[in-house]
Amino acid sequence: MSKRVNEAEDTSRPPKRPRPEQNQPSKPAEEIWSSRQLQDLLAFRQDGLHELRHGVTSLKVFLDNILYNREDDNRGRHLSILRDFLDSQKPKDPQDTEKPFLTQLWQAWSFANQNNNDYLASSLCAIFALLLKTVSSLLDFRELGTLLCRTILQHQHLRLVKRSLDAPKHKDFLVSPSLRLLTELTSFDGGVFAREVYKRREQTFDLTALRKNLGHFKTE
């Protein structure tokens, strides 16, 4: 009997279920025309994670364009949209940990961790790293970058980063963006937050996680 027939008759194991992220095709990124559009794209709803991933993809393309296409004729408009969007996400009280800067994205990341949605957690960590890298390159956005750094340094948010850092080696798609985020945080504005990152070293510089990650990248 051929191998093909044997495989067809083997019913001892159920077929593997596809990952939730693979159930639906990803939509192409939308061109961003307004701050309100970004707010709608990045709104967090537990029953709208596919739409949120689409929003994160659209934001990534938007930020890439600002960061790497400095000669773009639309650059001024894009910067204005980004500032309006970030201003709309600022908390009334910077010390309010219940409604921090960019609340919806943090809520989504927390939800992803609670539900072991690693791909959503990875994409959100990556978009925070890219956002911080983008505003770091814009002198006029220094105040917003400072607010973002202080928000990342809040305990509940560093816990999200540490979970990604603690991911096993085969989940390097979680480890890489968390390392990028910590790198951007440490180097922001000439290292003004480096001391604060070190003070929180139990979450940011856990030696076990660092040895594991450095050994992983060294062998690649």
How would the global form be characterised?
Answer: globular
Strand content: under 5%
Instruction: Report, as a whole number of angstroms, the end-to-end distance.
Output: 42 Å
Biggest sheet architecture: none
The whole-angstrom Rg is 20 Å
Task: Return residue spans where pLDDT drops below 50 for at least 5 consecutive residues.
Answer: 1-23
Strand tally: 0
**Count of alpha/pi helices:** 13
The residue-averaged pLDDT reads 85
Which percent range fits the helix content?
55-70%
Quaternary structure state of the chains depicted: single chain
Give the ordered list of helices and strands.
HHHHHHHHHHHHH
Structural class: mainly alpha
Number of domains: 1
Helix/strand layout:
Elements: H1 3-9, H2 20-23, H3 35-41, H4 49-68, H5 75-88, H6 103-114, H7 118-136, H8 142-152, H9 155-165, H10 172-187, H11 194-199, H12 201-204, H13 207-219
Give a structural overview:
- By secondary structure, the protein is mainly α.
- The chain has one domain.
- About 65% of the residues lie in helices and about 0% in strands.
- The chain is built from 13 helices and no strands.
- Helix 7 runs parallel beside helix 10.
- The protein is globular, with a radius of gyration of 20 Å.
- The chain starts with a helix and ends with a helix.
